[in-house]
Amino acid sequence: xxxxxxxxxxxxxxxxxxxxxxxxxxxxxxxxxxxxxxxxxxxxxxxxxxxxxxxxxxxxxxxxxxxxxxxxxxxxxx
Length: 78
What we know:
With about 80 residues, the chain is of the alpha/beta class. It is built from 3 helices and 3 strands. Helix 2 packs across helix 3 (about 65-75). It is globular and about 40 Å long. About 15% of the residues are buried.
């Protein structure tokens, strides 16, 4: 029998540049099978948008990402 463990990190409220290093450390601690649930995220800044875009480019799933964040991520990608 094979098990796949997925860690879901639910984030809420405002996320800004000062939170990125803590978020990065948390993701490293939990390994590659992390999923970010952004359903309750209300406000982000450009550093967070760039971080989320990199996470997604590296294969991480972003669940319930609002349209404004998703569109902003698209504009920040090279």
